[in-house]
């Protein structure tokens, strides 16, 4: 039984009308607070109440609610999350932030979601932007931005206790307490622990990938006498993950592969400070500084990353028509790899710097009706030098209930550390017959200093409306034009003889930027207040991706184009038969897809389409107590969602699960 304790707030977003929901403030689109209805971007907001009523126990599972995102659970402790294509274990075109702190890894280009175990009760909202956000957020905000925003300490006063478990969620627990340290100064601290069961193979065997994570943290928010606002927050975590690996073994014919049980130990901490001052009613400045340390130790490689980030920002009204936001930023990245036979990074340790300047102007062409947004980011990194990422957006509001917008944006995905300086063995060892013996050939992807940034030019159109008080619509259309996409070719590979043991061949496959392509699609979000006690939420996504590669490289990129499903549907129902009872239903459909096994055989990693169902029943016997039972993935005993890429992990399936939940505040 899962137990979680939290207050039920009357002011949660589900108590708002649909018109009021469009007035909910978002900050990720313009780096300033603005109503959702005025955002000239494809943005979707997941509220704290949405998370609670979904039954999700992690951020990746909660992100399934957003249109345009593809969420695949690869094993018990790994996810693939992407926006508008290019999914994978470490999807490299999606930028993720927690309270403005970037958690996108510069080492492998992607997010280690198993290390982002945010306390769900502390989340105020998750803002999901599909499409480029590079003008404000910088390189790698190519296909989307996810900004996880937590509540202020003043909003989490008192205590919260959580404890529980179930068939798959073996143990869940959290303790949080908040108080007022001094007039205008509030603080909270928390600890949490999660333990999750292993997934299963297609034959029902244990996947040997169970894991646990312990985390703690704090946040202090203070309003000073001069009106300045200061926030200091930090987190500390340690996790232990099991995984079964398939590794190339040139000394084990005929398959030249072996399976090993591995333990991955991950740990880290972060500290963030933010200062804000209002210079006038129409002008403010802010300064943000954070330090992030993360370590991972596993069979493939060990790595340590330290990031120091500093950002200054100012917003000012210039005249009656211009709302200007500009800023400066600096980031230092220091990393170190413990090399292995599978992964070799040279040099093993490296420090690099990133400098940036951004400026964006909202120009009100017709008051409350027509607004033009112009801006660009100028970013310099040690790998590719200066990158310029402009955007142009236009918003037209023919009425208070309707808005139309369009955008043209340019974004870049800068090289990851391993793409410039690493040699990585792939899992599909080949056999080369010779007169004397059959020799193993190990494919090795080789990083090169010639690897350049990937480029995107995006064209978007959007429409939002509340035709009635009980119905809202949000439609986004997009066309993405990609250039200089990453390629890896078997043709022309250079063979290198290694004399270790009986000897084997290394096929060096250098990375390059020789592919281009395009993607297009549509995303729809519909919300209907059927009755005062019943709300329906529909999300639909359609995606087509086509990649053109030089001769000899088609297979890798054809597989990549099929990684994300062409269609996805999510339908959620939130019903309150009585004020003290919740009945929540979540139905999902995910179209057929593939997995990005480099040089895999077509069909080897096919993921069939599937339907799934989650149910949640909750009862509040008292205002500060909530009891619930949640069933997840109820339509199948198990189903596959995706497989690992590049490195070899066992192919596993997500199981049906049931857990109980208690929420109590004090």
Task: Offer a concise description of the structure.
The protein is mostly beta strands and 666 residues long. The protein has a 22-stranded antiparallel β-barrel. Strands 3-8-9-6-7 form a 5-stranded mixed sheet. A two-stranded antiparallel sheet has the order 1-2.
List keywords for this structure.
666 residues; 39 strands; 5% helix; Maltoporin, Chain A; globular; 22-stranded antiparallel barrel; mainly beta; five-stranded mixed sheet; disordered N terminus
Description:
This protein is mostly beta strands and 666 residues long. It has a single domain (13-665), classed as TonB-dependent receptor, beta-barrel domain (Maltoporin, Chain A, Beta Barrel), CATH 2.40.170. 5% of the residues lie in helices and 60% in strands. It has 6 helices and 39 strands. The strands form 5 sheets. The chain has a 22-stranded antiparallel beta barrel. It starts with 17 loop residues before the first helix and ends with a strand. Keywords: Cell outer membrane, Membrane, Receptor, Signal, TonB box, Transmembrane, Transmembrane beta strand, Transport. Residues 215-634 form the TonB-dependent receptor-like beta-barrel domain. Belongs to the TonB-dependent receptor family. Hemoglobin/haptoglobin binding protein subfamily. Its main location: membrane. It comes from Thiocystis violascens (strain ATCC 17096 / DSM 198 / 6111) (Chromatium violascens).
């Amino acid at each position: 039984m899962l137990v979680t304790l939290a207050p039920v707030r009357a002011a949660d977003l589900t108590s708002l009308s649909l018109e009021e929901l469009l007035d909910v403030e978002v900050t990720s689109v313009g780096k300033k607070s603005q109503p959702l209805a005025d955002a000239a971007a494809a943005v979707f907001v997941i509220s704290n109440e949405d998370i609670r009523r979904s039954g999700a126990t992690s951020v990746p599972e909660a992100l399934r609610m957003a249109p345009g995102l593809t969420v695949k659970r690869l094993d018990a402790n790994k996810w693939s999350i992407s926006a508008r294509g290019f999914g994978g274990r470490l999807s490299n075109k999606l930028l993720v932030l927690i309270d403005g702190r970037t958690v996108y890894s510069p080492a492998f280009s992607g997010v280690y979601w198993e290390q982002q175990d945010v306390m769900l009760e502390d989340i105020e909202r998750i803002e999901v932007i599909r499409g480029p956000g590079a003008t404000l957020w910088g390189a790698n905000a190519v296909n989307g931005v996810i900004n996880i925003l937590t509540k202020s300490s003043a909003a989490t006063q008192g205590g919260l206790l959580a404890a529980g478990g179930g068939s798959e969620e073996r143990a869940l627990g959290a303790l949080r307490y908040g108080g007022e340290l001094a007039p205008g100064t509030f603080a909270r601290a928390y600890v949490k622990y999660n333990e999750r069961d292993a997934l299963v193979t297609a034959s029902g065997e244990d996947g040997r990938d169970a894991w646990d994570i312990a985390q703690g943290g704090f946040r202090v928010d203070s309003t000073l006498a001069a009106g300045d606002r200061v926030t200091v927050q930090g987190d500390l975590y340690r996790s232990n993950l099991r995984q079964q690996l398939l590794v190339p073994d040139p000394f084990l014919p005929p398959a030249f592969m072996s399976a090993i049980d591995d333990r991955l130990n991950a740990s880290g901490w972060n500290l963030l400070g933010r200062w804000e001052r209002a210079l006038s009613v129409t002008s403010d400045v802010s300064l943000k500084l954070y330090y992030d340390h993360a370590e991972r130790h596993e069979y493939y490689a060990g790595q340590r990353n330290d990031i120091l980030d500093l950002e200054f920002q100012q917003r000012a009204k210039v005249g009656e028509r211009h709302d200007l936001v500009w800023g400066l930023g600096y980031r230092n990245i220091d990393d170190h790899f413990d090399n292995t036979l599978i992964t070799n990074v040279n040099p093993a340790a490296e420090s690099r710097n990133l400098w940036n300047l951004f400026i964006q102007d909202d120009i009100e062409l017709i008051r409350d009706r027509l607004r033009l947004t112009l801006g660009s980011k100028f970013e310099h990194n040690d790998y590719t030098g200066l990158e310029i990422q402009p955007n142009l957006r236009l918003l037209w509001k023919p009425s208070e209930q309707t808005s139309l917008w369009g955008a043209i944006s340019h974004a870049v995905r800068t090289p990851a550390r391993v793409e410039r300086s690493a040699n990585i063995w792939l899992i599909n060892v080949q056999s080369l017959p010779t007169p004397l013996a059959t020799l193993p050939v190990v494919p090795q992807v080789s990083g090169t200093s010639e690897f350049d940034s990937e480029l995107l030019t995006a064209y978007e159109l959007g429409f939002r409306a509340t035709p009635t008080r009980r119905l809202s619509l949000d439609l986004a259309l997009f066309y993405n034009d990609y250039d200089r996409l990453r390629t890896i070719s078997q043709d022309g590979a250079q063979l290198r003889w290694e004399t270790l043991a009986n000897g084997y061949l290394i096929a060096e496959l250098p990375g390059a930027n020789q592919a281009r392509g395009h993607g297009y699609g549509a995303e729809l979000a519909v919300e209907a207040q059927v009755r005062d006690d019943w709300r329906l939420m529909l999300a639909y996504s359609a995606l087509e991706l086509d990649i053109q590669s030089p001769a000899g490289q088609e297979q890798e990129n054809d597989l990549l184009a099929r990684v994300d499903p062409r269609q996805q549907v999510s339908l959620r129902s939130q019903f309150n038969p009585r004020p003290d009872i919740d009945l929540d239903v979540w139905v999902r459909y995910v179209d057929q897809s593939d997995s990005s096994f480099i040089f895999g055989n077509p069909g080897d990693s096919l993921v069939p389409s599937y339907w799934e169902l989650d149910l949640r029943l909750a009862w509040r016997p008292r205002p500060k107590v909530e009891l619930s039972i949640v069933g997840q993935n109820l339509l199948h005993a198990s189903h596959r969602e995706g497989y690992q890429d590049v490195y070899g992990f066992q192919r596993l399936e997500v199981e049906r699960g049931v857990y109980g939940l208690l929420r109590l505040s004090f």
